[in-house]
Amino acid sequence: MLVDFDTLPEESRVWIYQANRSFTEDEIEEIKSKLDNFIEAWTAHGKDLQSGYKIVYKRFIVIALNQSLNNATGCSIDASVRFIQQLEKDYNVDLMDKMNVSYKQGEYVAYKPLVDFKKMAKQNAVSKNTIVFNNLVTNISEFKENWEVPASESWHSRFIKT
Which DSSP letter does residue 86 get? Predict the structure, then answer.
């Protein structure tokens, strides 16, 4: 059951998929249509899952699920992973690799393998004030408060010299 992301409760679970490149406007429209269709049909043991999504910075797909109505099950999570993997194939993009870091350089969102981000931190090319995207947040409340934060306030801080 597709609902507006912003109407979901704060404790709704989120999954964040970061792309290794920005989507074009045409791709975003196509992906939105595919997300609408997927979420409208998404179920757990035959029960509708109340969900919504956002595409942020033309790069992040954020799916949220209201778990107070129905929880995702192994099968429904598998279905969402297969859906995301299909998007990867359709758009020749990487959405599932968690060993990459996205961060802001001014208004631009940069994307680097974790190894390169660590090197940049050693070279002081990124600092504790660099805005990073903490894709480990688990619910809408954390997404709003702790997703886009200075590196010093995220797991990224372990790589930054203070």
Answer: H
